[in-house]
């Protein structure tokens, strides 16, 4: 049987046609008009301005107290930082003395009895580099401090 001899049946719309397509706009229900929204906006803004005005003096007073506290405690924090810095320098010196106690001619703070800084008067504090400051600490502590100084 050949396909040419069979009659084709074309797909047609149903009798009476298809139902109409609904395309009419269906707007959402409005709860407030434009004038009502403007009135609500101005009402909320007025309440916000009033609340800001009522709290502004307290905000200024609290800010003044915070800054006064910072100014009062800042010298104490600097003194504590400097004290800890000097204590660490002392610990480094004591550790150097302990490590080099069996080496002949070694004096702490010198290179085999030769001063490192010949032009400075005796007793002058020479601030060490980071490597010298963290010489007896772990490398993790040194890296943490170096990155803190780089990024802050």
From TrEMBL:
It is a single-pass membrane protein. One of its GO terms (cellular component) is mitochondrial inner membrane. The chain crosses the membrane at residues 35-56. It comes from the Eukaryota. InterPro entries: GRIM-19. Pfam families: GRIM-19. It is found in: Mitochondrion inner membrane. Belongs to the complex I NDUFA13 subunit family. Complex I is composed of 45 different subunits. Interacts with CARD15, but not with CARD4. Interacts with STAT3, but not with STAT1, STAT2 and STAT5A. Interacts with OLFM4. This is NADH dehydrogenase [ubiquinone] 1 alpha subcomplex subunit 13.
């Amino acid at each position: 049987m050949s396909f040419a001899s069979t009659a084709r049946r074309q797909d047609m719309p149903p009798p009476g046609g298809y139902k109409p397509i609904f395309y009419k706009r269906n707007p959402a229900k409005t709860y407030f008009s434009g004038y009502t929204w403007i009135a609500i906006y101005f009402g909320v803004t007025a309440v916000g301005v009033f609340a800001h005005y009522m709290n502004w003096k307290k905000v200024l007073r609290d800010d003044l107290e915070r800054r006064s506290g910072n100014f009062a405690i800042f010298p104490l924090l600097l003194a504590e930082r400097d004290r800890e810095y000097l204590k660490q320098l002392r610990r480094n010196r004591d550790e150097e003395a302990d490590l080099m106690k069996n080496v002949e001619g070694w004096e702490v703070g010198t290179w085999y009895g030769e001063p490192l800084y010949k032009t400075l008067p005796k007793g002058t504090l020479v601030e060490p580099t980071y490597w010298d400051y963290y010489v007896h600490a772990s490398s993790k502590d040194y890296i943490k401090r170096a990155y803190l100084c780089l990024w802050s």
